[in-house]
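Sat 14:20. Reprocessing the chain from the morning session after the first attempt stalled halfway. Input below, unchanged.
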Amino acid sequence: MTIVYAVLITLAACAAMEGVAWASHRYIMHGWGWGWHRDHHERHDNFLEKNDLYALVGAAMSISMFALGSPLVMGDLLGMAAWWPATWIGLGILLYGVIYTLVHDGLVHQRWFRYVPRGGYLKRLVQAHHLHHATQSKEGGVSFGFVIARDPAALKRDLRAQREAGTAVLREGAGV
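Finished this time. Tokens:
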């Protein structure tokens, strides 16, 4: 195995996590997992929120991959052969988790630092996620990804259409 394969697997796993995150956010967090995610859509002064438990799920995914790729764990403890790509998949999941933490928790929600982008893609990410929070419940909504953001004008059109169809209830002053 060369370093090129390791880097490619790591980057592919990191990129694939945006799809996993989108689907999890759309169908789990805004579905049967709303109980953990609800407080993320409500104003509060708490440092932590139930929604942070989803970070533990991501960490468990990464740790599981590291374990599957470890000869020590798989060979010595379970009597099975380690699967070497799993280590690099675990690293890709970890890398996505770091990016998510910096972008979503740090930049968008300003939990770790204060920075307001004045333009470019970072501003688009912030706008898209704020439009995601324009809905008052788990129904409807836009922009379920965390790193890839559609044009805010298109997201506003989608929200207006959802409001008119009765599939989304928007917050007062949502600007849509």
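The radius of gyration is 19 Å.
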